[in-house]
Input
Amino acid sequence: MQNEPVDVLIIGAGASGAAIAWSLLETRMRILCLEQGPHLKDKGYPSRDDGYELARYGNFSCDPNVRGLKQDYPINADDSCITPVNFNAVGGSTINFLGHWPRMKPSDFRTRSLDGVGADWPVDYDTLAPFYDMNDRNTGVSGLGGNPAYPDYAPELPPIPIGKLGQTLAKGFNARGYHWWPSDVSILSQDHDGRQKCVNAGTCDLGCAAGAKGGTNFTYWPMLENAGVELRSECRVREILVDEATGFATGVLYHGADGQVHEQMAELVVVACNGVGTPRLLLNSKSKAFPDGLANRNGMVGKNLMFHPLTGVAGVFDEPMLGHEGPMACSILSQEFYETDPTRDFVRGYGLHSGRSTPPMTYALGGYGVDSPIPWGAEHREAMDNVYPYLAGLTVVSEDLPEEHNCVTLDPDLTDSDGIAAPKITYRLGDNTRRMLRHGEERAKEILLAAGAKKVLSKGDDNVWWRAGWHQMGTCRMGDDPVTSVVNGWGRSHDVKNLFIVDGSIFPTAGAVNPTSTIQAMALFIGDCIKTNIETLFD
Amino acid sequence: MWTQTQRTLLDAILDELVPPSNDGTIPGAGALGVADFLPTADAFAPNPVDTTQAVMMALGESFVELTRPEKVAALHLIEAQKPDAFATLVRLTYMGYYSRPDTRPLFGVGAHPIHPQGYPVPREDEALMDELTAPVRARGKVYRDAK
Output
């Protein structure tokens, strides 16, 4: 079935797809977005149910292999120590992300020049700063201005409460003389722009039924749909089509909500499926002109997959820490060990995040992102009565370096419910990252003890959290050199002049911060470049 | 779902997996009725009833007659012999136990669905935040310029 052509076709209604649609609104081009997931209805949020925590292990798991819903594609992570997690709906993974909103830092864009690793970005912090600001205004960001870990900027809304847990840990950081700061969050600390403030439910991963968290289903999409952007949900793109003569993208084939395969033509195609979904789609888009996948003449599509490998350390305190009250992953953030220090045995660095704790079921089952239930029997009783309520933890969030052998390819056997080849992840932890995580664990122990913990609990092994593949970056990296990168400095494919990529896959390096703020700032920057270059866009 | 004999055996097993507190204020998983949850748990494990029955059959009806130390020893033995089934039963037991609204308050967590009520957490006043951040601000800039 064929549909009327559009000017701009965006694939994916998550963080980046929504942001670039907003940026392109003023062009008055006809914009269509195809999203494989549904529009989530109010009753679809499990946090309104009595047994809400169960959903974390069923149809609201962050792991598509656990959810196994029609709109999900399976991911073969057998050859990886981290499995990618995501959500497929209007809003994408901003439905179940945790709303932590730190920006990348100036040095993150210059790791090759400064530290001899990774790759410099074609853009720098100063270029991106106005787009961070623009995106923050559209999203609603809470935090405390004056953070000495960044060039000066101030979130629009006051910080969310850091709570007893945050206050306790802050004293530990102060005792050690280390940096910390209340986390910047895309979570409303007060009613804002017609949305309700956070009620401190603590289950951000189950979707924010209040709309206080900055999921694009609550921020950008209401604006976009009111402005006339067409959004077709439950539409999964099978492949991007190309004109063999010109090498231009002509549109897509997609599986519609009606069960039929549709053809949708477009003048300009924007891919916004993030670090696993985007290379998967390009690799599935084979043609005579691109036998190894679209925009993949140099073989770089899918290479350099980066996550943010995590490990955690917890302290047991004398008083209940009430860690289940307040936004789940966000209280305070230390960037004391973020920048390269030549006295350490690793380059680049990491953040120490004080996430809060979970309700009791998740703790009993091993914690968020971990499948390792606590013991049964008498030890269970001891852990639940005398450890769980008194816990405050620190998570070590490390910067991954790009390595070509870490990659996304197509699985030869596994497919989604439409028969489209599923992605396969090949990923192993780098030695630099391993050393960084060990260093972080030791510092976290010191800080927890300085904060008054009577006991510190750490795994003491080299294993990272399994379901920690939130941040999927690098697999279609941007760069000025068409031999080593997939898109140019403003997101346009080197091979296909009317194909743009705007998600985390274009990151040349990963930084050590949650990437959504930067993904959206980059999408707005690319939108701005498209508008600026509109006359010569396809030259 | 369960016969009376099965239910007695299953409750005894569950009360060892999540035992009651010594002072009796927190019930065990058997007394709390987690046995009713298990047949409904097929969204979280394939064939939960078959899995549960495999553990029950391995332990046998005589399990209920054992002393507590003997029960614990018997469970450890089955855990070693049938690790997958046992691990699934443990996991489902925790899910059934802690998903109950009446269980959460025993661990300091609200019984209510988490939305719309949430929790009242006051924002720190400016003076406290100033005091806490003062040492951090006093140190000054902690990022590198990249120019």
User: Anything to note?
Assistant: The domain at 1-39+89-140+215-308+469-534 of chain A is CATH 3.50.50.60 (FAD/NAD(P)-binding domain). Chain A has two domains: 1-39+89-140+215-308+469-534, 150-184+310-399+431-463.
